[in-house]
């Protein structure tokens, strides 16, 4: 997915819901920090963006997005990308303070949206916590491209609460494969 494609999705999602305060929580969140030209191909391979709204307690906005521009929709068939409407609580392995570290997109490409993106280290911890093969490959690609500093990633992982001790061990095990 490119920034232009993501911007198109965000504009559509905000038009559908009438809410400009949108959060990208999946892999395309990395596009909030880096241009696709600076990312390894693996990091931009997704054709789906997980989109949540900061104010969507009943999940109705996520449902509206899913129905209008989700997988197999006319939007998907026309544009080759789609949005998955998710609730903000979907990202369960985010380190404390993640909301304070959200990235804003100063580009006009997303207007009328006022999108926020997970900061790359928070995104990486969430991906490693989910532990799906595609997530491990995603984080590995960012590390191999020197876009993540291992010490910062370890520090961010250490912020996870005790209830996520298993995730901390998994992330530590994954990171042990890399030089210090």
Automatic annotation (TrEMBL):
One Pfam family per UniProt: DUF6036
All residue ranges annotated as the DUF6036 domain in the record: 18-156
Name the record gives this protein: DUF6036 domain-containing protein
